[in-house]
Design a protein that fits this description.
This protein is α/β, with parallel strands linked by helices. The chain is 36% helix and 19% strand. It has one domain: Alpha-Beta Barrel (TIM Barrel). The structure holds D-xylitol-5-phosphate and zinc ion (ZN).
Length: 224
């Protein structure tokens, strides 16, 4: 099931409620919230209070992407703030199995994330328990970066792997996604698309999402 997740990192933080309203009409079900700590990634963004505020103004699911060191310390707080799914970087977790179970113990979906340089073999032992896998198509930390095309080889390999294991977790991609490259991502096996600047940077964000949905549908129709 193809889903487009607008990333609020590219939205106007002084007007988040209005920004959410601008994408609401497009049939999306999830919003992506990027949490950065200035340590795991070289940038600082939002935290628990912003997720809690968003929770009050929308019924969309909130997908929280933790780009932070020691994520275990904050999982409960984000769950209580109203996150519906929480993803953590493999590179930031010393005990990834424990962290996945910690997230699931709060009743939320647990995602694991890989940076572009990290191979999918590092997830081998947790694939049977994860709820989704996010493959970064930029080095995390900033919106508006160029899509790293080599990630599609990882998507294809992960898609193969989930088929061979009989698993159904969605594959998410994040970074540099637009109507121009969504088709090739769909054909490679991506299900969930995070899009920041191509949505909120557009004059009409809902129309930008609809264009991506159309491209994605056409790619599915063409088949592999
Ligand atoms: C990057 C973040 C992304 C970011 C994507 O570190 O994880 O979610 O918002 O932004 P765009 O779509 O502009 O590349
Ligand atoms: Zn993200």
């Amino acid at each position: 099931m193809i889903e487009i997740l607008p990333s609020i990192l590219a939205a106007d933080f002084a007007n988040l409620e209005a920004e959410v309203a601008r994408v609401r009409s497009s049939g999306i079900t999830m919003l992506h919230c990027d949490v950065m700590d200035g340590h795991f990634v070289p940038n600082i963004s939002i935290g628990v209070p912003v997720v809690a505020s968003l929770r009050k103004v929308t019924d969309l699911k909130l997908d929280v992407h933790l780009m932070i060191e020691e994520p275990d310390r904050y999982i409960e707080a984000f769950a209580e703030a109203g996150a519906d799914s929480i993803s953590v970087h493999q590179e930031a977790c010393r005990h990834l199995d424990r962290t996945v179970r910690l997230i699931q113990g709060t009743g939320k979906l647990a995602g694991v994330v890989l940076n572009p340089a990290t191979p999918i073999s590092t997830l081998e032992e947790v694939l049977p328990i994860v709820d989704y896998v996010l493959l970064m198509s930029v080095n995390p930390g900033f919106g508006g970066q160029n899509f790293i095309g080599r990630v599609l080889d990882k998507v294809r390999a992960l898609d193969q792997k989930r088929r061979s294991l009989g698993l159904g977790f969605p594959i998410q991609i994040d970074g540099g996604i637009s109507a121009r490259n969504i088709g090739e991502c769909v054909r490679a096996g991506v299900d969930w698309f995070v899009a920041g600047s191509s949505v909120f940077g557009a004059k009409n964000p809902a129309a930008a999402i609809e264009e991506m949905q159309t491209e994605a549908r056409e790619a599915t129709a063409v088949g592999i």
